[in-house]
Amino acid sequence: MEIWLNPACSKCRTAEGELRAAGVDYTVRRYLDEPPTVAELEDVLARLGLEPWDIARTADATKLGVSLPAKDSTHRRQWLELLVDHPRLIQRPILTASDGTTVVGRDPASLARVIAAD
């Protein structure tokens, strides 16, 4: 299991606690310190079945002084590059089980699904 997290995020701390409680071995990626590449984001999005704007924390864009592109296929690459350049915009935590199951673990049901898959 791999978890992309921000240690200052309460949802990330909750997810990590659930992994420990379930006895799941996992690795931590502090994605603010080690932002994902465009290719890594593409891979995660494919497993999630989502588009880049679906995992963006759009409310944080204003705080970062970032203009958001349109949410359409024409601007998809811009979204990917934006998330790489400003990883704070990425929803968290993102967990990937050893079988490839990937979730944005912000709720108990998503956490349970990824833990069961590992």
UniProtKB/TrEMBL annotation:
<dbReference type="InterPro" id="IPR036249">
    <property type="entry name" value="Thioredoxin-like_sf"/>
</dbReference>
<dbReference type="InterPro" id="IPR006660">
    <property type="entry name" value="Arsenate_reductase-like"/>
</dbReference>
<dbReference type="Pfam" id="PF03960">
    <property type="entry name" value="ArsC"/>
</dbReference>
<protein>
    <submittedName>
        <fullName>Arsenate reductase</fullName>
    </submittedName>
</protein>
<comment type="similarity">
    <text>Belongs to the ArsC family.</text>
</comment>
